[in-house]
Amino acid sequence: MKRTAVLVGLLLTAGSCQAFAQGTAANGTLYYTTFTGTQRVHKVDYNYDGAATYVLSSSTDIAATPGGDGIIFAPDGQLLVGGQGTGQVYKVDPNAINSFVTKASGVAGAYHLSLDPSGTKFYAAGLPGNLGVIPLNPFADGTQKVLSGSVSQITSIAFDTLGNAYYTASGGTGNGSVGRINLTTGVTTEVIANLPAAHGMVYDSFTNKLTLFGASHITQLNLDANLTQFSDLDLSTLETGHTFQLDQGATDGHGHALVADNNANLVFLDYSTGTNQVASYGFLDQQFLATSLDDVAPLSGLGSNTTPEPGTLGLLFGMGMTGSAFAFRRLRRRR
Predict the structure, then answer these.
(1) Is 293:260 a contact under the CB 8 Å cutoff?
(2) Which of 168, 251, 327, 333 places its Cα 20 to 30 Å from the Cα of 187?
(3) Residue 236 bridge partners (DSSP)
């Protein structure tokens, strides 16, 4: 049976009742993968009214790739999908049914994917695992990039607007290493150890922070020398009886995050007003999306469907892409 968690939009403070502030509306199409089954690549429409209603609709199968994990867009608008333990990566036509091309990633496990700022290649890594580098012009078999330093195997890569690269390294349940990575030399430098959210990771242009997803945590990190924590939201403190295993998430550049929970739910978070901290959100909801829900494609920035063509990527990166806490909400399960 589908499970929906609805959040109460009121804060009870000293016997009074206060409504949370109005956020910004959000809607679009989210592309996602599932880690079991025949159909592995899908899309779903989402709509949030900026206040208290978040709806998923029109979930559609796209491709039956042999594996399905990380998912991003190439600059030409095609989807790139990691093939899990197959070691393969797939280029999928999002506008067709079951139309894809298969290449070797260069490593044994192709899980999380990241687009390089050049737009000419992308990266595939494991849980954690070795790093594969796959060319896009043309799309061809990848090769392994040998890593050294603090860690030699990683999970996710994200880039800030200056092109600086960051990594996470953790198993499927999160709790791992976060640091910097030099993709020319392959040297990794750990900054934070044993961070629960150190699994999926994106750069969020709305806050100019790194946003990480893992275990039951969504964590924002400042882009300073120590990657100091800006905010952390632990979903397990909001709902008991549900085990969260957050994997990859997408931020839309307007103060919203959609996060895949491997336990079938898609988490929606609105932090668009107030402090911009995930822990001071204006609205939070989770809805059943798919059994074996794995990863979601970026909604803004590198790897999203709005990624510019490769010729303009370097210019954009050189230029820089461009109150009080909200109500604490209790999760209530409705069946």
Answers:
(1) yes
(2) 251
(3) none
Q: What percent of the chain has pLDDT over 90?
A: 80
User: Model-level pTM?
Assistant: 0.87
**Residue pLDDT, tens place only, 160-214:** 999 999 999 999 999 999 999 999 999 999 999 999 999 999 999 999 999 999 9
Residue 318 dihedral angles phi and psi, to the nearest 5°: -70, -35
Backbone angles phi and psi of 185, in degrees to 5: -90, -20
User: Under DSSP, is residue 163 helix (H, G, I), strand (E, B) or coil?
Assistant: coil
Please state, in angstroms and rounded to a whole number, the distance separating the CA atoms of residues 39 and 92.
Answer: 13
State whether residue 310 is helix, strand or coil.
Answer: helix
From residue 121, alpha-carbon distances to 153, 184, 215, 237, 254 in Å are 19, 13, 29, 40, 27
3-class secondary-structure state, position 157: strand
Structure tokens at 141: 């078999």
Joined together, the tokens standing for residue 233 give: 């939201």
Q: Rounded to an integer, what distance in angstroms lies between the CA atom of residue 203 and that of residue 184?
A: 20
- For residue 94, what are the β-bridge partners? none
* Pair of tokens at residue 28: 């679009």
Helix (H, G, I), strand (E, B) or coil at 311: helix
Give CA–CA dist 258/102, Å, rounded: 28
- Dist. CA 290–CA 35, nearest whole Å: 10
**DSSP letter (8 states) at residue 75:** T
> pLDDT for 121-141, tens place per residue?
999 999 999 999 999 999 999
